[in-house]
């Protein structure tokens, strides 16, 4: 067991202060990601920095890439055409939309930054030790949730503690402009910026300027986990950051296969004075993914899902050990270590109490070589998570998987998913019926009739070559139609429901970054010997399994051998798509021709 927080934080701060700073940035810009106590002696230094920075020009840095699909290398600016959010009014949208430095990877409004810094200094003078007030959500009118949305799982949340709003975790739908508020959440409600001291954020695509308006670099120490395969691109992005001189920001690139890998995981570690808010989502860090738009008259165009849980600091104030964590906590820490984050970031997680995560499972795909026997990942990791939650011993199961990207699917890969969802290893002797496995992916007609139209569908991907393969499971496809009319989806949601061998019903949902592809879940071939070959991973992915509560399941009236209906999930997640989905019936899916 470690010493007190103060001693430990001092050691960690000293360790970070010994690390080299980016060229062009002062030593103060190094982010101590484990100590979130701000000293009272920073005023003079901050004032000097504010004056110095105000005399500098904002460096304009060329962008390195320009990407519109999740299969290519992302840029740090918007991947969805921000000037063409609605295909019905493209020209008027372009003229009405403000320009936002499309060629700048880390272009931040320096004037605004310094104004915020000076305001911060004045606030410190008035009141040196201010306790953050409870975060107040958006003033937009909220539509009252239906009774099913207020069932046992959500009722167990923050009725007592206003700080720990979601102590057992919850799945929310992302907000969408112009649509009624239901069981959704805005990016501002999620971040709770006034209460955050440290933010570790992982995303596949970025709008750096937008995010910097959400989380001020003068107030929040930030660590961005980004996707760039080759060393040249990584070096260029680091240089961009150094030349901009942005304070309190570090960027990190996980190890990966430089030829085909992607850092596709989407998570946030939001550290405040009293809690850690852990977020796992399907959304990238760009405004469109969070339902925001450039013009007041426009509705949102793209929706996602997000899991979040609020974890309190340890009651003893100490830094714990990994051995004390739940399986969920151990899985998270292993993933962060495999990501090769600063060890101080990982150590900081051990200051928080994971005891209320025992009903959850953290599922990951580690996009580099790792010991899969000790730490199963990909589909074997999904199977292990199902076992750990005692959701295995399955007699009958139904799967409904909504995704924004489909890979080179065939019967073998669907078998692997079907087995893993039951906590089983892959077995070639048993094949699932296609009617028991439904894949929700939009038809071309649904894309064309959506609010954003084809111009906003670059992040929805199925290659024509994959679709045209004789092995592609066309019979599994269902048209993804959002319950928000005209909304496109970037969700990755796997719903499992069925009966155990003893006849008891079960249901759980996976929410995370993994689409339906071997890149996301791992490739594994059956050898001639009858044994499984080595698991080959490409992407970094992460997600969480949330089971439906036993109270909800016990209230069902089911026939013999009947699986729970999809409505069983209404106490756990607001289902974002219409079900049962319509068969394609000759219609074509939305295809990419690359």
Automatic annotation (TrEMBL):
Gene Ontology cellular-component terms listed: nucleus
Active site: 264 (nucleophile), 490 (proton donor/acceptor)
Matches recorded under SMART domains: UIM
Binding positions (substrate): 266, 492
Bias type Polar residues, positions: 85-106
Biased composition (Low complexity): 59-79
UniProt-listed InterPro entries: PLipase_D/transphosphatidylase, Tdp1, UIM_dom
A GO BP entry: DNA repair
Residues marked Interaction with DNA (site): 517
Basic and acidic residues composition bias: residue spans: 108-122
Superkingdom in the source lineage: Eukaryota
Pfam families: Tyr-DNA_phospho, UIM
Domain named PLD phosphodiesterase: residues: 485-520
Membrane spanning stretches: none
Stretches with biased composition (Acidic residues): 35-45
Residue numbers spanned by region Disordered: 17-148
Protein name from the UniProt record: PLD phosphodiesterase domain-containing protein
């Amino acid at each position: 067991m470690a010493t007190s927080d103060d001693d430990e934080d001092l050691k960690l701060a000293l360790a970070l202060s010994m690390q080299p700073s980016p060229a062009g940035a002062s030593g103060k810009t190094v982010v101590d990601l484990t100590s979130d106590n701000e000293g009272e002696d920073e005023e003079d230094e901050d004032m000097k920095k504010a004056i110095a920075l105000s005399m500098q020009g904002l460096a304009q840095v060329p962008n390195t890439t320009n990407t519109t699909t999740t299969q290519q290398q992302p840029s740090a600016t918007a991947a969805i055409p921000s000037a063409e959010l609605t295909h019905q009014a493209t020209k008027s949208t372009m003229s009405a939309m403000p320009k936002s430095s499309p060629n700048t990877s880390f272009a931040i409004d320096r004037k605004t930054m310094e104004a915020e810094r000076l305001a911060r200094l004045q606030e410190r003078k008035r009141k040196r030790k201010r306790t953050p007030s409870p975060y107040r959500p958006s003033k937009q009118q909220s539509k009252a949730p239906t009774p099913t949305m207020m069932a046992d799982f959500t009722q167990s949340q923050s009725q007592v503690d206003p700080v720990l709003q979601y102590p057992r975790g919850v799945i929310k739908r992302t907000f969408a402009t112009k649509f009624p508020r239901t069981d959704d959440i805005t990016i501002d409600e999620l971040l709770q910026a006034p209460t955050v001291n440290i933010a570790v954020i992982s995303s596949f695509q970025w709008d750096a300027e937008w995010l910097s308006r959400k989380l001020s670099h003068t107030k929040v120490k930030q660590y961005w986990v980004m996707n760039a395969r080759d060393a040249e691109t990584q070096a260029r992005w680091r240089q961009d950051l150094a030349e901009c001189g942005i304070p309190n920001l570090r960027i990190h690139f996980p190890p990966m296969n430089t030829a085909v890998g992607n850092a596709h995981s989407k998570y946030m570690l939001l550290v405040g004075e009293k809690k850690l808010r852990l977020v796992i989502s399907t959304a990238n860090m760009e405004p469109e993914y969070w339902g925001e738009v450039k013009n007041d008259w426009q509705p949102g165009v793209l929706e996602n899902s997000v899991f979040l849980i609020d974890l309190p600091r340890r009651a003893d104030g100490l830094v714990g050990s990994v051995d004390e964590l739940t399986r969920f906590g151990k899985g998270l820490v292993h993933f962060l270590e495999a990501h090769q984050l600063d060890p101080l970031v990982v150590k900081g997680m051990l200051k928080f109490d994971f005891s209320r995560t025992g009903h959850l499972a953290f599922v990951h795909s580690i996009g580099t070589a790792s010991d899969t026997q000790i730490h199963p990942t990909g589909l074997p990791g999904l199977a292990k998570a199902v076992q750990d939650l005692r959701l295995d011993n399955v007699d009958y199961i139904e799967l409904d998987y909504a995704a924004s990207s489909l890979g080179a699917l065939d019967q073998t890969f669907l078998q692997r998913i079907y087995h893993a969802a039951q906590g089983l290893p892959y077995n070639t002797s048993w094949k699932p019926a296609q009617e028991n496995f439904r894949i929700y992916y939009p038809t071309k007609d649904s894309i064309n009739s959506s609010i954003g139209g084809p111009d906003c569908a670059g992040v929805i991907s199925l290659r024509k070559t994959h679709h045209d393969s004789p092995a592609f499971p066309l019979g599994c496809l269902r048209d993804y139609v959002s319950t928000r009319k005209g909304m496109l989806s970037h969700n990755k949601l796997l719903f499992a429901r069925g009966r155990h061998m003893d006849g008891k019903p079960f249901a759980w949902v996976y929410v995370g970054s993994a689409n339906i592809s071997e890149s996301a879940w791992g490739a594994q071939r059956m050898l001639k010997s009858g044994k499984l070959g080595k698991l080959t991973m490409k992407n970094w992915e992460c997600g969480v399994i949330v089971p439906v509560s036993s109270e909800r399941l016990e209230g069902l009236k089911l026939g013999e051998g009947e699986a729970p209906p999809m409505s069983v999930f209404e106490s756990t997640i607001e289902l974002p798509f219409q079900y049962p989905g319509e068969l394609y019936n000759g219609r074509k899916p939305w295809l990419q021709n690359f």
